[in-house]
Each structure stands twice: as structure tokens, then as C-alpha cells.
Known about the structure:
The complex is a heterodimer.
Chain A: H1 3-13, H2 17-39, H3 42-58, H4 69-90, H5 103-108, H6 111-121, H7 125-135, H8 141-148, H9 152-172
Chain B: H1 3-21, H2 28-54, H3 58-79, E1 91-95, E2 102-106, E3 114-115, E4 124-128, E5 134-142, E6 145-147, E7 155-159, E8 162-169, H4 173-177
Antiparallel strand pairs in B: 1-4, 2-3, 2-5, 5-6, 5-8, 7-8
Amino acid sequence: MPAEELELIQRSLNGDLEAWGEIVSRYKEAVFAVTLSILRNYADAEDATQDAFIRAYENLRKYDLSRKFSTWLFTVAANVAKNALRKRRRAKDPPLPEMDGDPAEEAYGDLRLEAVRQAVAELPETYRAPIVLYYWHGLPLEEIGEVLGLPVGTVKTRLHRARALIRAKLVQEGVIRDAVG
Amino acid sequence: MRWDELDELLRAALSKEVAEGAKGLSGLEERVVRELARRSTHQRFWTRVRDFFTRPTPRWALAGALAALLIGFALGRLTAPPALPQWSPNLFVIAAPGARSVAVVGDFSAWQPIPLSDPDGDGIWMASIPLPPGRYEYAFIVDGKWVGQDPLADEYLRTFGEYVSVRYIGGGRADLSS
């Protein structure tokens, strides 16, 4: 862990909220990517991101300094998002269709990217989170397993299945014509 | 399309998606800090309330102790057993809660037991024995056991390997020995 980050964490442990604000600033996008991968909804993911940072601060004393901070933080975020997802399912509140891109952008932007994004969004949550942690965060499989509480073998199989589902969807929609080789 | 091309496409698509959503994260730092500060203040309030009741200051502790003392004194006055007879040199008294029989033996009775009584059942056994001034050796017998050391005695002796109490009635030892 970089010395500067360690200092921020130690200051946060001593109740320095400004230091924690700096941690939020550094990790907010990464944490948001985790919560978004699970909740698939911008508004819910924003709320979960805020909750995750609050929960992490309140549980900072449980953080083992020998562990990688980001992994611990992402684990907190994944748990917060999973809880939010469970609440949403209990409330039978379907995810908002906020993930649809701007029509103008879709018309003029990269349609392939939009199609891939849509294919990822349609993946079950169990596949979406490993995909985001692998492709967006660039985490090694062991850390993905740690964050999601899964064995590495399960992470591998889920990544394979997720990619296969995305490919099938893109082929079906004519975004890619040929079989992946 | 090769796998690595699909991988690149996935990375690009996810980056775009997160970047678009992250626009809503502007000011998140302030919101988190504000919420944590609010919770801290809220927590401090309840901590103060709890401390008020569970961790009294020395002043409150003193007041509480005084109040408890007064209440205890008042309750004691209300529930106290009838006052003991005023102690006199002729009164033989011993605390023997739960005892079945208590007696006093002494040279004044030729070491024959004189029963003590506990009419109110509070464990205080007593007997008033009119004795002329003098020096008296005695002991109590509690459920058959010898109790030679009376706290109210003037002195103790060891006789036959056991203690006996000595009481001077009608003046101190010096008075009686003179």
C-alpha cells in the first residue's frame, strides 16, 4: 500500500473525515463500477456507492492493514450492493430503464459499444459482477473471488460463461458476424 | 472476431458505461463526509444521553449516593425491628442467626445455661440477668457450641484451652479491684 494512502487510512481511523473524503475521491469511480455491476441502475448504484463509503468508514477498524485496501473496499461495496439488490427484489421494484443510452448518441456513436453495454447489462448479476471486476477494474481472479466471496474456480467459469453469453447476444443481433476464434 | 478483440470491446463498453454513470458522483465526497459528521453528532447526542444515566459525574454520583442513603435510612426506620433494649452491663446479647438454641453460662450461674431468647426472630439473642457489681466470667453456648469471645466483653481469658469472656459490672476493673 502506498505510504500516502496508509496515512489517509490512519488519519481516517483517528476520525479525520477530510482524510476519508480523499479516500472517497480516489475510489468513488471504482466503487461505483462495482455497485453498478450488481445493481445495473445508475441511481441505485450512486446510493449504494455512498452507503458503501459510509459503511466502510464505520467498519474501518475491522480492516486488516496487511490486506489490499481496494479489495477490502470493493468487498464492502459488493455486499452493500447485494443487500440493496435483495431489498429491491423484495420490493418487486424493477430496475429503472436508466441504462439505455442517449438515442442521439446511439445514432451517431459507436453502435457496437452500445450493443456490448446492453449485452453486459442483460447478464445475470452473478455474471455481470465478475465481468466488470475483470475488464473494468482489471483485478486478478483471486481478488475477484475475494471481493465476491467466490472460489477462484467459480470466478473462472463465470467469466467464461459471461463472455460466451455476450458473444452469442452480439452474433444474434448482428453486431458481430463471424464466430469468435 | 477474435477473443482479444471482444475483450477490448468489453473494456471499452464498460469504461463508457461507468464514465457516464460516474457523472452523478460529483460531490460524493462532501455528501459522505456530511453524512458521517451527522451520524457522529447524532451518536454523540445519544452517547451523552446514555452517559447521563449510566455514567454519572462525581457530583451526580454524590447526589445519588446521598439520595440512596436517605431513602435507605427512611426505609430502615419504617421497616426496622423494634429497638433493642438499651444495653446495660446486665444484658447478655449475641448475634446467632439461624440458631436453634442459645444460652449463656458463667460463674454467676455456676456455669449452668441460662437461655437467651429471640422473640422477633432477627437472629439477635438476649437475656437480661440482674447481677450485683462484680467481675464475671461467662460464655455463650450456641446450638451446643462454645462461644467464648463476646465482643461486648471487657476482656478474655483462656481456660481449659477455651476462651471465656470477662465482664465488670458496676465499675471498671480498677474500681472493682481497689
